[in-house]
Every structure is written in C-alpha cells, then in structure tokens.
Amino acid sequence: MALVPYGGGGVLPGLHSPAATYRFAGRPVRIEQSWAQLGVAAVVWDAALVLCAYLEAGNVDLCDRAVIELGAGTGLLGIVAALLGARVTVTDRAAALALLESNVRANLPPELQPRAAVKELTWGRDLGSFPPGAFDLVLGSDIVYLEETFADLLRTLEHLCAEHTVILLSCRIRYERDLDFLRMLRGRFSVHEVHYDPTKDVRIYKAQRGGRKDEI
C-alpha cells in the first residue's frame, strides 16, 4: 500500500472551489464546498467519489435500507445513498451541520427529502441519540486520518452496529497510523478489502461483526 502525504493525488486543485458538480444516480449533484471556513471537512475527497461509484454500481442493495454516514462533511456520499433508495442519517460535528444540511436539501427532490436526516454526532460522545444496532449500513469516506479519534470512532462503530450491520469505509492509506486503525478494527470486526481504485489509490473495506458474510 502506498503511504502518501495527506492531500496527495490529483484532487488538490478542486479543494478551494466554492462548488463542485458530479453525476450520480442519473442526476447532477452540486456540492457547495467551504475550505476557508471548515478545511478538510468541507470539500469532496476522492474516497467519497470512489465509494459513491461503488454504491451506484449496485454492489450494495440500498433499497429502503437504514444507512448512517459518519463524518459526512459535504454530504455527497449520503446524498447519493438517498438517491439510490436508502433511508439515510447524515452526521458530522456541529460546525459542519449548516453546510451539510444545505447540500442535502439542495440535492434531494421533494419526494426524497423525508428519507434523509442531518444530525450532530461527535464520535464517542453523542451515542445516546442513536439507537444501538439500528442501521443496516454504516458509511465513511476518508474518516481515518487523525489518530486521536481512532478509539472514539471504533466505539461509535461498535454502538451503531448489530450482527447484520455492514460497514463500508473508503480511504487512501497515507500514513502508518491508518493501518493501525485497520488493525484496531480487525480486533472487533471481520474486515475485508472489497475494492481498489488504482487511478485514485483508494481502497474500500467492508467490516462486520463476528465474521458473518451477510450481504445487504
């Protein structure tokens, strides 16, 4: 696995743009960005695009599934999941919620608005607001990069996941500590790499409790 500095690859020129437009689920998705105000949390990274494409390709049955996105940032991944038929809870810390809410509401047609909720979640702290084990799928893109968050992220995943819950994490491995988190995750879940995009150097990992092979 290549270990490259955070922000490596061809994504940097687009980080400071106020908006970016993509096409998923047969429709344009226009995402507002705010690097100046929120930094890395308010721009679209390659890992989100790769996981969106993975979902769009039909690798996961999203129809009427309960999905939660962690560290959603701009909300692109959760928006795409909702467009593909999921009932989505899109989460991030309080500072990111205004941008997140704006993007979600701007990109979902009226009939899909009730299928998406934006909620505050600081990993390891706000878990009482989320029913344990209530989700079919947990999504995260490029959320593994700050070592001090790893224990709280793992605690959050354990709270959210029942036996049937599938976790999909997409990331570019930049540092040795990223691999440390994967080792931590393997201590609690069965973890497999299910996709690699060599053009963006992004991997998708699937995790599930107890080594079960359930598909959703």
UniProtKB/TrEMBL annotation:
<keyword id="KW-0949">S-adenosyl-L-methionine</keyword>
<dbReference type="GO" id="GO:0008168">
    <property type="term" value="F:methyltransferase activity"/>
</dbReference>
<dbReference type="InterPro" id="IPR019410">
    <property type="entry name" value="Methyltransf_16"/>
</dbReference>
<keyword id="KW-0963">Cytoplasm</keyword>
<dbReference type="InterPro" id="IPR029063">
    <property type="entry name" value="SAM-dependent_MTases_sf"/>
</dbReference>
<dbReference type="GO" id="GO:0032259">
    <property type="term" value="P:methylation"/>
</dbReference>
<comment type="similarity">
    <text>Belongs to the methyltransferase superfamily. METTL21 family.</text>
</comment>
<protein>
    <recommendedName>
        <fullName>Protein N-lysine methyltransferase METTL21A</fullName>
    </recommendedName>
</protein>
<dbReference type="Pfam" id="PF10294">
    <property type="entry name" value="Methyltransf_16"/>
</dbReference>
<keyword id="KW-0489">Methyltransferase</keyword>
<keyword id="KW-0808">Transferase</keyword>
